[in-house]
Automatic annotation (TrEMBL):
InterPro entries assigned to the protein according to its UniProt record, in alphabetical order: AAA+_ATPase, ABC_AA/LPS_Transport, ABC_transporter-like_ATP-bd, BCA_ABC_TP_C, P-loop_NTPase
PROSITE patterns associated with the record: ABC_TRANSPORTER_2
Protein name: ABC transporter ATP-binding protein
UniProt keyword list: ATP-binding, Cell membrane, Membrane, Nucleotide-binding, Transport
Residue ranges of domain ABC transporter in the record: 25-273
Gene3D superfamilies to which the protein is assigned, alphabetical: P-loop containing nucleotide triphosphate hydrolases (3.40.50.300)
CDD domains: ABC_Mj1267_LivG_branched
Pfam entry (one): BCA_ABC_TP_C
Superkingdom: Bacteria
Gene Ontology CC: one annotated term: plasma membrane
GO molecular function: ATP binding; ATP hydrolysis activity
């Protein structure tokens, strides 16, 4: 897709009306090693409420590792993370979910044999209070809760325009639609912060355009903070409020798209002249 198209998508969803809020996640001097591999070295940046914050950089730069730190999957050896101003304790992924953080993965992580509907339903797991025991004892309450979950899932299905495939096993869908189902599952958790690891990778132009529009709509209509890893620079520069650039695990740029685009270190990293 042309960059102008993306810009039109951005403005048509009313990006200007969005209010970027306070810092919700503040990452300070994060370093992460795997044995001898330094995946992240002394990285600091913050994420503000309601913004689209992109993380870019060449392959192996540490982008996915950074998402895993934010998500509580990886625990950095050094550094501090403040969540709404409070230092975050060592956390597990389910704790991130409880803080309103949901994600999609670089490699689609869905149950291929299950239907679209059932896959999206798994995104509600954390919200379900009633377990089997409750179901047995308090049938009415469990039933009401089930109805509420179904309603939320149907809303997400409508929002992402996937009604026609709701009963299809995910494994039978083309790649682009599987990516959309994964987004649906993340949205079913009603996150305040959505981490997207290359949501448009491997998509054709039309699929990319759709995904781009959905990301902007989620951000605009629900105010969801988006942390986006994406290799397509046209998309990144058009829809991001701020961009952080990683290279070999180090931060080499951070700022609004126009600033980052003209940063000599960033240009060098992408042209491969700095190494
Ligand atoms: N679980 C792990 N164990 C060992 N090394 C890891 C692990 N996860 C990441 N790494 C290493 O950390 C570095 C950064 O990897 P990461 O996947 O974060 O990069 P990336 O920027 O997401 O790359 P890509 O664009 O290819 O997805 C790489 O050298 C990678 O091999
Ligand atoms: Mg990655």
């Amino acid at each position: 897709m042309m960059m102008n198209d993306m810009a039109n998508v951005a403005s048509s969803t009313g990006g200007g009306g969005r209010r970027i809020g306070e810092v919700i996640l503040d990452l300070k001097n994060i370093s992460l090693r795997f044995g001898g591999v330094k995946a992240l070295t002394d990285i600091s940046f913050d994420i503000r409420e309601h913004e689209i914050r992109s993380i870019i950089g060449p392959n192996g730069a540490g982008k996915s590792s950074m998402l895993n730190v934010i998500n509580g999957v990886y625990h950095p050896q050094e550094g501090q993370i403040l969540f709404r101003g409070e230092p975050r304790q060592k956390m597990e992924p389910h704790m991130a979910a409880a803080q309103g953080i949901a994600r999609t993965f670089q490699n689609i992580a869905l149950f291929k044999g299950m239907t679209v509907l059932d896959n999206i339903m798994t995104g509600r797991n954390l919200k379900m209070k009633c377990n089997l025991f409750h179901h047995a004892l308090f049938f009415g309450k469990a039933q009401r809760e089930e109805i509420e979950h179904r309603k939320k899932v149907e809303e997400v299905i409508d929002f992402l325009e996937i009604q026609s495939i709701r009963k299809t096993p995910v494994g039978r869908l083309p790649y682009g639609l599987q990516k959309r189902v994964e987004l649906a599952r993340a949205l079913a958790a009603e996150p305040t912060m959505l981490l997207l690891d290359e949501p448009m990778a491997g998509m054709n132009v039309e699929e990319k355009q759709d995904m781009c529009r959905f990301i902007l709509d989620v951000n605009d209509q629900f105010g969801t903070t988006i942390v986006l890893i994406e290799h397509d620079m046209g998309v990144v520069m058009d829809i991001s409020d701020r961009v952080v650039v990683l290279d070999y695990g180090k931060k080499i740029g951070d700022g609004p798209p126009d600033e980052v685009k003209n940063n000599p270190d960033v240009i060098a990293a992408y042209l491969g002249t700095s190494h």
